């Protein structure tokens, strides 16, 4: 791509500003890195930690801040000792390194490169800002890729980019704790802390120590009552908190028949408004880059899969969840065990990518992680270590943890992984366990609780320096507006308007429906097969001279079959509900969007299959086609009425077996009091109300009476008298409509109020 004389390309501009990343190519200036590497150590490769499939991860960010950073990255994050100025002269390393921090080979390489006068080359290849000057597409890609190669977790590996960084959200929490009701136990003792923008935080602790509990509380995901306050930029969280933050849950719940790329695209377009000039191709490139960053490029067109649908592996699914979380343009991310199920190399690569996002773009990422390898642990800036049951034993910089342990009288032995050692000492029940000692030490030591409490007090209500959530969103809006029109920022927890939510959810439902070819085809084939079997039983019934009585049996069978055929939608509705609940809890879309999309599409398909069934059976029966519209109409009406009952039960029931139990009384009433086997003439008087309320009875009566009128059949007239059929068209339509409305409303209430994701 030649952009030298054509002026800035909006796509490049987007990429450069970090709003929409550009796709990967092999780094062009690999030679430089190889030179530097070999000069220093002779063994480091520019693509040192690659993901499977030789993918070169690349950064992707979603809203750059044009003003200089106000807080210079994570508190305590160290910088390289040498002063290095970018070609714009804005990125300066001036803070001294932590004294205790050893310098990694890569840091040394960078220092040597700086000293040797290769500064400008190195800088220009490692900051996206410089691509603004060159406006060169390939070098922009190369520089993004190269940035990840410099992520080491040690001082000065990457620094906040003043041109691109958009993270300006600080998280402060005070005395958050969680106790089970009725004194069943304390899960998390009061815990406080503060994370500056750009901090990569590790929440560590033994199993059951309350890491997820703390993460859920901070992310505003805890559904059980807890105490304590969480603040965003010194202010209590509000509705917009969920647009500023993003959550990657521990479990990977997704539709099995969507592809990896579609899943990521769905999350991306629902979390932020896309400027009008950003094309589908730009978006596709964005997705491509995000997939590369987490090593999923090779499986981008594979299905997510499940136990019954062949798809990607469990580890890859974990990475899809992570990519979806990180694709939201949030400023604070909460990730629960994002690396579980990943190979050691992939886990390291994921955390390196997170560090890149933190350092370069100023976002904060809080990660609950069980026991990372040392190579992964050093990538974190901050360690919050819990013991079991949830009590803090360390809350400070990762680089200071070793010294803290020494101060506590337990220096980390040589050749032992510090994080393993920390965990061994604070895990109850182990041989080395020193839980009580570390609890007390944290409470009493000046570098423990006292320091955290002081920081929290200082940061709380530090309103004049920090922006509100609304202002943060407005900033992003302003930056993105140069790429096209955008609707004004709304005070809503949803990233996009309802119309767009509905459109996206509807399109996905259509795709799922079409992709599930087996499901659609099976449904149509079953309708045809059922029609042939039933039709064979009643073949030519409309032609007999004295077939009136038998014809009523035929109509009865048709109505009953149509009333029951919607039952098959229940398992599907229950399965989809779980995914919908998770996505709704992530405020991707409103539950209304799903209810409307799912219900309308499902109704359309089912009615279509029902029409095939009725038409085929009717054709085989030999009845006069003049009455076909009557038969089709009443059978469709009964189908729609009963369908809302099935969907209500599917919305209320926990699973398929409890759905059957819940359905039984409704079904018995509707099916037993059907106007034919139990008719007006035979029903006991005290149960006459049941007949009046049965939709099947009303549909049956109205249909037979209308057919009789149409055919003017004396036989049928006789049968009607025998069974006591009466026409009350208004009342019948009222009952059928009543069933439809009552159960549809109940379905909506159940979907909105029940089976929430409980945390
Ligand atoms: N809402 C709740 N109701 C009852 N118990 C709860 C609730 N939330 C958490 N717990 C309990 O709190 C304890 C800590 O759980 P949590 O998931 O926070 O631990 P963890 O450190 O993340 O564990 P792991 O590393 O094994 O995932 C567990 O015993 C869990 O059952």
UniProtKB/TrEMBL annotation:
Residues 171-414 form the ABC transporter domain. This is ABCG2 protein. GO terms for molecular function: ABC-type transporter activity; ATP binding; ATP hydrolysis activity. It is a multi-pass membrane protein. It holds the Pfam family ABC2_membrane. PANTHER family: ABC TRANSPORTER G FAMILY MEMBER 28, PROTEIN SCARLET. The gene is ABCG2. One of its GO terms (cellular component) is membrane. Keywords: ATP-binding, Membrane, Nucleotide-binding, Transmembrane, Transmembrane helix, Transport. The chain crosses the membrane at residues 520-541, 553-571, 592-620, 626-649, 661-679. It is found in: Membrane. It comes from Symbiodinium natans. Residues 1-22, 72-99 are annotated as: Disordered.
């Amino acid at each position: 791509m030649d952009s030298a004389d054509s002026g800035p390309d909006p796509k490049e501009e987007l990429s450069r500003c970090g709003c929409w990343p550009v796709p990967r190519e092999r780094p062009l200036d690999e030679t430089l890195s190889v030179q530097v590497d070999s000069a220093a150590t002779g063994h480091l490769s520019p693509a040192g930690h690659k993901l499977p499939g030789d993918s070169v991860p690349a950064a992707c960010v979603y809203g750059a801040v044009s003003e200089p950073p106000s807080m210079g990255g994570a508190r305590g994050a160290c910088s390289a000792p040498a002063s290095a100025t970018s070609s714009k002269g804005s990125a300066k390393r001036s803070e001294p390194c932590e004294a205790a921090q050893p310098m990694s080979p890569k840091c040394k390489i960078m220092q040597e490169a700086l000293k040797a006068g290769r500064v400008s080359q190195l800088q220009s290849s490692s900051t996206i800002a410089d691509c603004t000057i060159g406006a060169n597409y390939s070098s922009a890609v190369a520089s993004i890729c190269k940035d990840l190669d410099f992520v080491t977790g040690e001082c000065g590996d990457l620094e906040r980019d003043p041109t691109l960084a958009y993270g300006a959200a600080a998280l402060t929490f005070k005395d958050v704790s969680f106790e089970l009701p009725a004194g069943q136990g304390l899960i998390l003792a009061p815990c406080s802390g503060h994370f500056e923008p750009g901090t990569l935080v590790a929440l560590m602790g033994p199993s059951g120590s309350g890491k997820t509990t703390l993460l859920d509380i901070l992310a505003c995901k805890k559904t059980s009552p807890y105490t304590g306050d969480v603040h965003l930029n010194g202010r209590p969280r509000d509705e917009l908190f969920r647009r500023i933050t993003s959550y990657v849950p521990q479990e990977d719940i997704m539709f099995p028949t969507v592809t990896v790329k579609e899943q990521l695209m769905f999350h991306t377009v629902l979390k932020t408004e896309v400027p009008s000039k950003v094309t589908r191709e730009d978006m596709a490139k964005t997705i491509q880059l995000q997939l590369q960053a987490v090593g999923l490029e090779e499986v981008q067109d594979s299905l997510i899969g499940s136990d019954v649908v062949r798809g990607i592996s469990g580890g890859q699914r974990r990475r899809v969840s992570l990519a979806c979380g990180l694709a939201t343009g949030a400023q604070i991310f909460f990730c629960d065990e994002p690396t579980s199920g990943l190979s050691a190399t992939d886990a390291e690569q994921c955390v390196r990518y997170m560090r890149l996002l933190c350092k370069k773009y100023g976002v904060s990422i809080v990660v609950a992680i069980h026991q990372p390898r040392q190579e992964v642990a050093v990538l974190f800036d901050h360690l919050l270590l819990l013991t079991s049951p949830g009590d803090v034993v360390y809350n400070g910089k990762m680089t200071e943890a070793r010294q803290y342990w020494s101060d506590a009288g337990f220096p980390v032995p040589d050749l032992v992984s510090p994080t393993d050692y920390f965990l061994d000492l604070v895990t109850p029940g182990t041989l080395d366990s020193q839980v009580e000692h570390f609890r007390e030490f944290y409470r009493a030591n000046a570098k423990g609780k006292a320091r955290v409490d002081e920081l929290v007090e200082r940061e709380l209500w530090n309103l004049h320096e920090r922006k509100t959530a609304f202002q943060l969103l407005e900033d992003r809006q302003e930056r993105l507006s140069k790429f096209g029109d955008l609707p004004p920022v709304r005070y809503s927890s949803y990233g996009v308007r309802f119309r767009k939510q509905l459109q996206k959810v509807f399109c996905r439902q259509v795709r799922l429906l079409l992709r599930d070819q087996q499901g659609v085809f099976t449904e149509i084939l079953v309708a045809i097969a059922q029609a042939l079997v039933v039709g064979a039983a009643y073949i030519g019934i409309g032609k007999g001279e004295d077939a009136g009585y038998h014809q009523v049996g035929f109509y009865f069978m048709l109505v009953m079959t149509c009333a029951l055929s919607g039952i098959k939608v229940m398992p599907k509705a229950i399965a989809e509900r779980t995914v919908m609940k998770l996505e709704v809890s992530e405020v991707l879309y409103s539950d209304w969007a799903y209810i409307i999309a799912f219900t309308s599409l499902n109704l359309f398909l089912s009615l279509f299959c029902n029409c095939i069934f009725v038409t085929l059976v009717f054709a085989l029966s030999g009845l006069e086609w003049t009455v076909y519209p009557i038969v089709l109409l009443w059978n469709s009406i009964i189908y729609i009425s009963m369908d809302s009952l099935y969907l209500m039960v599917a919305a209320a029931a926990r699973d398929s077996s409890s759905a059957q139990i819940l359905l039984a009384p409704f079904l018995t009433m509707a099916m037993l009091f059907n106007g034919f086997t139990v008719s007006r003439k035979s029903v006991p008087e005290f149960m006459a109300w049941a007949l009046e309320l049965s939709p099947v009875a009303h549909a049956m009566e109205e249909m037979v009476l209308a057919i009789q009128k149409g055919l003017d059949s004396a036989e049928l007239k006789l049968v009607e008298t025998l069974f006591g059929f009466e026409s009350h068209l208004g009342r019948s339509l009222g009952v059928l409509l009543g069933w439809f409305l009552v159960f549809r409303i109940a379905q909506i209430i159940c979907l909105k109020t029940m089976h929430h994701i409980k945390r």
